[in-house]
Request: fold
Amino acid sequence: MSFSFNIEKELIGTRARAGVITTPNGEIKTPSFVVVGTKATVKSLSPEEVKGLGGQVVLANTYHLYLEPGEERVKRSGGLHSFMNWDGPTMTDSGGFQAFSLGVAYGAGIGKLLKKESKEIEEEEKTPPLAKITEDGVAFKSHIDGSEHFFTPEKSINIQQSLGADIIFSFDECTSPYATHEYQKEALLRTHRWAERSLNAHQKEISKQALFGIVQGGRHNELRKESAQFMVSLPFDGFGIGGSFEKEDIDKAVGLVNDILPKQKPRHLLGIGEPEDLFNGIEQGVDTFDCVAPTRIARNGQLYTKNGKINILNAKFKDDLSTLDDGCGCFACENYTRAYLAHLFRAKELYGLRLASIHNLYFIVHLVNSIRDSILDGTFHKLKKNFFAGYGK
Reply:
């Protein structure tokens, strides 16, 4: 069988489970953190380093690879695995998130999580958007050269088929957390129509790729329930949970959806990856996560430690000869001091970005791996308690 999901153990009293996703290019032991390699590369790291720090699966971005170097060039190179020399499982997103990031979110400081008052956002929305949504798809201008393009559900699937990832996603519309209920409903129904079109396009080709449908609904529980119920009615291989959230209620929203999604199919939480969200998501039944945060914040000098995040650019680290994170087994922590990392960042040396990225990815990947182990041996609640007793103090 080219794709399957097997649950090894469920944690009593929660929705958490440990399992194994089997793909044509290997297994994913779940729960698992999916390392983001947007342009068929994890920024500043080699595929061998990603594998070495424990990464099992890499997610690439359909929109970016479509623009550069083009999906046909990747296909001629033997597909994503050969192109980037990655021999493990891969995922590609649908490109639907770019309808959000290049549309209403463009230049407005809007993310997936509700952080500001709607009025503040409205005042900030001054940059003309690069994307426009219609019933048929999304028209957008390239952020590279301004050229015009149009994504339909069918085109998204065709691009992802050419890229050749093991797991691909249906085309969807990710809405702003500040959108009205009326618009969220409109976008939800459009996403459902796009899901059907994505599925039809995928079924026209004989493929070993697994197709996941994406649950939307924004911050409205009744819409999320409606979306989950609709997606369950279609023969998807698994499901993504997308859209915008309120930070405080993300676990409740995910739990609500996962009570509807079939237990025997894997669930992926799109674009979420902070430690507290990982614990909460897993407790609510999420199997895999992807997020750019570990490498993105690393490039700004922010580093995860068991005592919370630190900013290596703070003056106090200039003469700190201690290990970055005591007890961490990553290459950076085993070989360098905080003072050296602080020097690299202040000197704007590229090696600092590499070491910070290696550490942050190792921290998050191994955190999720340890959560998986705790589900298997029944120590999840103890692990969660002990982790947050130190993290953020």
